[in-house]
């Protein structure tokens, strides 16, 4: 039982911005747009949107619904709701796996957030100016090879995250989202505007949106389904925690649609901002993380106005990293605050320091602990693989199965406010389609 009345979002808009901020992360800035260009363009977008509607939206709504009903941290919520519906409290393991996933993901996510902070400063002081490809590559390799540099920026990033989350739901999470999300969109639109003047905007449009139906196959469909699942911060305890701060007056399905539209629009805008710059400089669009930290710095360092554009881009990247990172810490803090005698402030510092410590192990895997392997993976890759391929899909699967099969059906229908036909569609999606989609992604990730 919470020691005080459970916190609430101050408004639907605050909640939407916070949820969208959680969904919009580093992956949106490069991974989604690259997947679009490499997997059939508009054909991939259509498949992705279908996967979001059939798999992502039902699970997102289910996690919010569970959180709102429980009004507690994910572990207590799952335990109490299960007991109140005559089910075993073992369902609480779904809450445990979600909170654990958020904790583990933030530990290595913060390391990458630190890279973004580092590159923001590098843009300000003109580090990339006039550098060639080898020099830019050496800068990135040098950063990864320096435990001191990685520790400094990982620590700086976690200090920002802890500082925001410690302020609470409205003053911390919501206030940060109200500031950073509009700033992120403005920066994105400025960069898209620049891309439209580069002479290569049409090439970027073609790369991302020309439908190539021949590129679609089972692997691409599974990739689209996986992206639809992971981009919405599902299976991490985040949306259950956020739902626990949600009032009864918010329509879950319409709000989910809004969050999904914002998330997808920002991901597509990111591609329209990035790829004109890449193509204008004769660079490769298929570099993965290297696109952000090697390819683009090379472009910014050798173009007119590159210092300002680079600063805006890496600020944008930092905002995206921060809005996701604070959402990852929140379910851990909420759980500690409600399951122990810790205050909000103490719970935030305790969980933040623990995340930071695991992040130190992750960053050392790039240098002094590079030979330390578990199951053939270094610490950073092990954390990534374990969370993305095991914890997240299993937690998301558990949440949708619980909402669809354990919660009292009439109360769920009343809460969703759907027509009779809508209820029928919801039952099919939540009971069969979404679980099947998650199982497919889970099995494919293990093969």
UniProtKB/TrEMBL annotation:
InterPro entries from the UniProt entry? Na/ntran_symport (IPR000175), SNS_sf (IPR037272), YocR/YhdH-like (IPR047218)
Pfam families given in the database record? SNF (PF00209)
Family matches, as NCBIfam families: Na_transp (NF037979)
Main subcellular location of this protein, as a coarse class: membrane
Which subcellular locations apply to this protein?
Membrane
Identify the keywords attached in UniProt to this record, alphabetized.
Membrane, Transmembrane, Transmembrane helix, Transport
Query: How does this protein sit in the membrane?
Result: Multi-pass membrane protein
Descriptive protein name: Sodium-dependent transporter
Q: Where is the secretion signal located?
A: none
Q: Which domain of life is it from?
A: Bacteria
Bilayer-crossing regions:
12-30, 42-67, 88-112, 150-169, 181-201, 221-247, 259-279, 345-370, 390-407, 428-446
């Amino acid at each position: 039982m919470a020691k005080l009345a459970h916190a609430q979002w101050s408004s639907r808009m605050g909640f939407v911005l916070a949820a969208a901020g959680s969904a919009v992360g580093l992956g949106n800035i490069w991974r989604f747009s690259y997947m679009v260009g490499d997997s059939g363009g508009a054909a991939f977008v259509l498949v992705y949107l279908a996967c979001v509607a059939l798999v992502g939206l039902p699970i997102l709504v289910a996690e919010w619904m569970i959180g709102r009903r429980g009004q507690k941290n994910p572990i207590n919520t799952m335990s109490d709701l299960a007991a109140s519906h005559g089910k075993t409290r073992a369902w609480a393991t779904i809450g445990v796996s979600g909170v654990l996933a958020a904790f583990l993901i933030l530990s290595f996510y913060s390391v990458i957030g630190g890279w973004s902070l580092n590159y923001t400063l590098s843009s300000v002081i003109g580090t990339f100016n006039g550098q060639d490809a080898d020099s830019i590559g050496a800068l990135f390799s040098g950063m990864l090879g320096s435990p001191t540099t990685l520790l400094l920026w990982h620590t700086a990033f976690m200090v920002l995250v802890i500082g925001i989350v410690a302020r609470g739901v409205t003053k911390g999470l919501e206030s940060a989202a109200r500031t950073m999300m509009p700033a992120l969109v403005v920066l994105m639109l400025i960069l898209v505007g620049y891309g439209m003047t580069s002479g290569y905007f049409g090439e970027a449009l073609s790369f991302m949106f020309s439908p190539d139906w021949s590129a679609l196959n089972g692997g691409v469909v599974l990739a689209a389904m996986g992206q639809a699942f992971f981009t919405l911060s599902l299976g991490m305890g985040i949306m259950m925690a956020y739902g626990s701060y949600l009032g009864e007056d918010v329509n879950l399905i319409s709000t989910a649609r809004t969050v999904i539209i914002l998330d997808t629009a920002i991901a597509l805008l990111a591609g329209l901002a990035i790829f004109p710059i890449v193509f204008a400089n004769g660079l490769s669009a298929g570099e993965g993380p290297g696109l952000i930290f090697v390819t683009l710095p090379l472009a910014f360092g050798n173009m007119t106005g590159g210092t300002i554009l680079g600063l805006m881009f890496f600020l944008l990247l930092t905002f995206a990293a921060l809005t996701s990172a604070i959402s990852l810490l929140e379910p851990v803090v909420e759980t500690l605050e409600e399951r122990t005698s810790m205050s909000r402030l103490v719970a935030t510092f305790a969980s933040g320091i623990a995340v930071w410590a695991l992040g130190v192990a992750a960053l050392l895997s790039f240098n002094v602990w590079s030979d330390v392997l578990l199951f053939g993976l270094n610490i950073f890759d092990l954390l990534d693989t374990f969370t993305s391929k095991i914890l997240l899909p299993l937690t998301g699967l558990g949440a949708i199965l619980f909402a669809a099969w354990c919660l009292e059906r009439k109360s769920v229908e009343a809460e969703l406010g759907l027509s009779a036909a809508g209820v029928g569609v919801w039952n099919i999606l939540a009971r069969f389609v979404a679980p099947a989609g998650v199982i497919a992604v889970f099995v494919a990730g293990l093969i």
